[in-house]
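In response to the reviewer comment on reproducibility (Comment 2.3), we provide here a single inverse folding case reported in full, input and output, so that an independent group could reproduce the run without further information from us. The structure tokens appear first.
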């Protein structure tokens, strides 16, 4: 058994760091959500901010959008031209995706400063792309409501997860030992 641990030390380290980081950050996020209940921002600060920023992006592109809190869906209803288009709920705020991204990067971490910078840059990029994704999805659903399932369940999640995968590949390549040394 000792030889197996020695042989697969790198894999065990990766899995342990990934799962530990993912669990820790998920628990912290869960505590944040619990503390946000009945707070100043509905449903929570981050989701509210994402909804407002998505609405602002739509406004910047000439769409008349309005946000309304909805306790039934536990989120924000976003309308375009007075037509309900999407509900922005906690699962839309990109925090879960950012936690997944960060857990992978931490599991492959080497240099603290480099890791911290990549975590920050990646999280900001994911957040911004998510805002744009919601705004574009809102317009797409407004214009093509018949494709709601395809757009909401396949195309737009594919965009955010593909970007995370690309960031992971960039991270792994950045850690590759330089063969010219």
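Designed residues, in position order:
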């Amino acid at each position: 058994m000792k030889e197996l641990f020695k042989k697969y030390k790198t894999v065990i380290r990766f899995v342990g760091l990934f799962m530990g980081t993912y669990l820790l950050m998920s628990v912290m996020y869960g505590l944040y959500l619990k503390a946000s209940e009945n707070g100043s921002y509905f449903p929570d600060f981050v989701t509210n901010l994402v909804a407002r920023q998505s609405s602002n992006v739509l406004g910047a592109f000439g769409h008349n959008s309005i946000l309304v809190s909805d306790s039934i869906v536990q989120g924000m209803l976003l309308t375009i031209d007075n037509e309900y288009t999407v509900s922005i709920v906690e699962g839309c705020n990109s925090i879960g995706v950012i936690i997944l991204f960060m857990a992978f990067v931490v599991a492959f971490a080497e240099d603290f400063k480099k890791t911290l910078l990549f975590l920050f840059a990646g999280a900001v990029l994911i957040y911004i792309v998510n805002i744009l994704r919601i705004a574009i999805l809102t317009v797409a659903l407004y214009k093509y409501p018949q494709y709601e399932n395809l757009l909401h369940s396949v195309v737009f999640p594919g965009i955010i997860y593909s970007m995370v995968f690309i960031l992971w590949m960039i991270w792994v390549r950045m850690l590759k030992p330089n063969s010219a040394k």
